Amino acid sequence: MNVFMVYAHPEPTSFNGALKDRAFEILTGAGHNFEVTDLYAEDFNPRAGRHDFQETADPARFDYQVEQKQAAEDGTFSPELARDQERLFWCDLFILQFPLWWFGPPAILKGWIDRTLAFGHLYDHGHRYTTGLLKGRTGMVSVTTGGPEERFGGAESLYDSLDIYLKPLEFGCIQYLGMDLADRFVAWSAGRVGDDGRKAYLDQWTDQLLAVTSVESTDRAVA
Ligand code: FAD
What we know:
By secondary structure, this protein is α/β, with parallel strands linked by helices. 36% of the residues lie in helices and 14% in strands. The protein has a single domain, classed as Rossmann fold (3-Layer(aba) Sandwich). The protein has six helices and six strands. Strands 1, 2, 3, 4, 5 and 6 form a six-stranded parallel β-sheet that branches. α4 links the parallel β3 (93-99) and β4 (138-144). The structure holds flavin-adenine dinucleotide. Flavin-adenine dinucleotide binds at residues 9, 11, 13-16, 18, 99-103, 144-147, 190-191, 195, 198.
């Protein structure tokens, strides 16, 4: 199986880094192919603009989706976008790995989504959800939080359910593109559960990765 992870954490020795490294170790050890885009290490530019394209469709006015559609037809996305777009078509399993920051992904990851998931290439008119261009693949979120689980949802809780905060990624990206949504992995309060708690999370993550990669993908759309 081909696995593509987009990883967003500025510190290599973070717990997110440990989850990324564990995924590499387990998946390559099981014979899978694993590609990772390490957004901070690559100094990924999250700002959309004309630099997304090697050629210009309309020099007079910048319409982002018009430029994306033209670049999709001409194959003129900037190299870092083209590489990750290819990885999205290449993969069977797509993983977003990040810490919850302000109830969402770090800005660098939102920028990757804006720039990489381009109109005319990753989605298009008539190609969303069940007719999505990445149909046949599976996508999942792996997230760490600062707050404990009981703070997210439930009648007395301070926050809404994590379902709400992850909906833009799970429903708005993964399913929108046509992928099946796998269960998310959550390391609640990753910084506060102690070494034993974190070891347990890494063991759970291992089990979840082995389970999700043991399922054969079917009905895979081609690029
Ligand atoms: P780290 O702090 O990097 O690591 C946690 C611990 O794990 C450290 O002690 C580290 O040494 C240890 N560790 C590293 N590797 C291993 C290993 N292999 N085995 C065992 N232990 C290891 N939280 C919320 O709940 N909601 C929010 O909206 C929110 N907003 C935030 C906004 C910002 C800008 C920031 C900076 C934080 C926010 N937080 C929020 C908290 C944030 O989600 C957590 O701090 C984060 O998820 C913890 O993950 P980490 O990878 O950064 O952990």
